[in-house]
Write a structure and sequence with these properties.
alpha/beta; Peroxisomal Thiolase, Chain A, domain 1; four-stranded mixed sheet; 32% helix; binds coenzyme A
Length: 340
């Protein structure tokens, strides 16, 4: 342990937080009216009680604007130097959704980009924004995770169909010092593209178009091999959390709260067991919102601050896993901030 490791250094510091879901909630019972499933199966196998879905006139971009506007208000800022949007469900395949989100928030002229790492997207987006802040390229940034997987699900898919919901969450980062509350610690990021087929939308991309294959409507739906993904999720998040703790010089016992991607409550239980952490350190809102993909971690933080489960000074681990396969983890001491 050297002074260089523990000494003060430039860092990206969380200074604003916001989140939101569309108004329409869909209960498990409502899903069971059109899918061969039950409330009991969904609750016991996933921990999910309901999820929210968008209605006509809404989109990933509109959810991102709402969450982003709340995060800016929470930070007390009217604008920032960068907008990064993590999403797998952009408003259109081209162009990126982030520039329009930035413009709708009153920010034209700023760099704005989408980041695609499926359910790991928010932690990836944080890492991109943090790097641009620490390198002095920008002073501050809005980082949004927003997804509307309800638009990707096949109406007859009872596997993925019961776990996903729509939502958005956002944080504001500013340039600061590593010893400040809210400073993001080192990141652990990784992918394993050999398992790309476990989570995918097979059609609509260049591989299909270049092959001249006819587009089949079915190919545009999201597919997931749930049981295999479950195992990879536990394995990869366990390894990633250990790496990030190691880099932050934190022991497992130092962690007060874990904000892990909300895909399935049984994954959270397995992760807690693998890490040797009490389950009650794991924040959870999966019962209310389901798996909101890139929105999952920031929406969880927002809900946890709102209900008092996450408090200033808490040492928090953020970890996520998704298609790619991709995973990412970072750490921070939770700062004092108000949410809208
Ligand atoms: N209702 C009732 N039965 C269902 C069902 C549903 N909604 N979904 C699947 N089943 C059935 C299956 O058909 C299967 O039946 P069988 O044994 O007769 O063949 C049985 O339940 C078990 O299926 P399986 O796919 O193994 O279920 P599971 O316990 O793995 O749960 C998921 C399915 C999708 C909830 C679960 O695999 C999961 O959460 N995976 C991880 C998702 C994830 O982490 N994603 C991260 C990136 S977003």
């Amino acid at each position: 342990m050297t002074a260089a490791i523990h000494g003060s250094r430039p860092a990206a510091v969380v200074c604003g937080l916001g989140g939101g879901t569309p108004p329409r909630a869909v209960t498990n019972d409502e899903l069971a009216e059109r899918l061969d499933t039950t409330d009991e199966w969904i609750r016991s196998r996933t921990g999910i009680g309901q999820r929210y879905v968008i209605e006509p006139g809404m989109s990933t971009g509109s959810l991102a604007v709402e969450a982003g506007s709340r995060a800016l208000k929470s930070a007390g800022l009217g604008s920032v130097g960068l907008v990064v949007l993590a999403t797998t469900t952009p408003d259109r395949p081209c162009p990126a959704t982030a520039p329009e989100v930035a413009a709708r928030l009153g920010m034209t002229g700023v760099p704005a980009l989408d980041v695609g790492a499926v359910c790991a997207g928010f932690v990836y987006a944080l890492s991109v924004a943090a790097a641009l802040i620490v390198s002095d390229t920008v002073r501050d940034a809005l980082v949004v995770g927003a997804d509307t997987f309800s638009t990707l699900l096949h109406p007859a898919d009872r596997g993925a169909g019961v776990i996903f919901g729509d939502g958005a969450g956002a944080v504001v980062l500013r340039r600061g010092r590593s010893e400040e509350p809210g400073a993001l610690g080192p990141f652990d990021l990784g992918t394993d593209g050999e398992h790309a087929e476990l989570i995918q939308i097979p059609g609509g991309g260049s591989a299909q178009r270049a092959g001249g294959e006819p587009t089949r409507a079915h190919d545009h739906y999201f597919t997931m091999q749930g049981r295999a993904v479950f195992k990879h999720a536990v394995l990869r998040m366990t390894g990633s959390v250990r790496q990030a703790l190691h880099r932050a010089h934190w022991a497992v016992e130092d962690v007060d709260r874990v904000a892990a991607h909300q895909a399935n409550s049984r994954i959270l239980a397995a992760l807690a067991e693998q890490l040797g952490m009490p389950q009650d350190r794991f924040l959870s809102n999966i019962d209310r919102v389901g798996n909101t993909a890139a929105a999952s971690v920031p929406l969880l933080l927002n809900d946890a601050v709102a209900d008092g489960a996450l408090r200033p000074g808490d040492r928090v681990v953020l970890t996520s896993f998704g298609g790619g396969l991709a995973w990412g983890t970072t750490t921070l001491r939770w700062p004092e901030l108000d949410i809208a």
